[in-house]
Amino acid sequence: MTSVRSLAQGSIAVGLLVLGLKYVAYHLTGSVALLSDAIESIVNVVTALVAFLAISFSAKPADDEHPYGHHKAEYFSAVLEGVLIVLAAILILREAYFSYLEPRKLETPWLGLAANGAATVINAGWAWLLIKQGRARRSPALLADGRHLMTDVWSSVGVLGGVIVAAISGITILDPILAALVALNILWAGWGLMKESLSGLMDEAIEPAMLATIKQTISTHADGAIEAHDLRTRRAGSMTFIDFHLVVAGTTTVSAAHDICDNLEQAIRDKVGEALITIHVEPDDKAKHSGIVVL
Prior knowledge:
- By secondary structure, this protein is α+β, with helices and mostly antiparallel strands.
- It has 2 domains: 200 residues, Cation efflux protein transmembrane domain (Alpha-lytic protease prodomain-like); 86 residues, 2-Layer Sandwich (Alpha-Beta Plaits).
- 69% of the residues lie in helices and 11% in strands.
- The protein contains 8 helices and 4 strands.
- The longest helix has 30 residues.
- The protein is elongated.
- It is found in: Membrane.
- Its main location: membrane.
- It is a multi-pass membrane protein.
- Belongs to the cation diffusion facilitator (CDF) transporter (TC 2.A.4) family.
């Protein structure tokens, strides 16, 4: 978790650097499209700060009031990020509208574009790192931040190309049109982030591939058991919650059943990582003959 917090702190620093470069680009050119890019970077800084706070809170151990831990805090961060993205899109559309009514000739475009290009390269590298680490560490906050930044990167690439065309051709109306397209693009990204995070808050089951892995692990590592049924899963941040019923022979001692569960829990954690596993042991007359058969 310390590494995750360090990455979240790094996002704040990178966001401030990129914001500074993009503002310089706008100041040099007067381009509303580059202004839209800078506005999105303001959102990046705010959401990076929120993600850091959420990750720090989610790392707190379970307590009397939160016996299952604080892992869901990261989902609130991702939802808030989606909301802020939508607000940024509305601000950008507003600026694009007024610029459309009164198009302005771009000033010092090439120096400004160079500053924006440098910011885009920095953003791309950091977004790739956040997405990679967010997946590896199963951090919704890092993953949401990385995906948002990658959306920002593609928006910036489109803006750069369009502003270059506008600067060369002198067609000033291209500038507000580009800004409006940026706004629509990040609106779509914001909706995707909120939808994914709400799934986590609603205790949606884990992805089918991982569920199949858990079933296979139970089938091949529950030596001494007969079957497992009523398997349920959910995920909260980096923690996976798994519970199921395990059927053993009626003559199995409590000690032997306990050993079976311990071995099975370790095998599952080896496959899925951090997990809270609850196993309800039942005698063989409770078998449903429709669950997971132990090989």
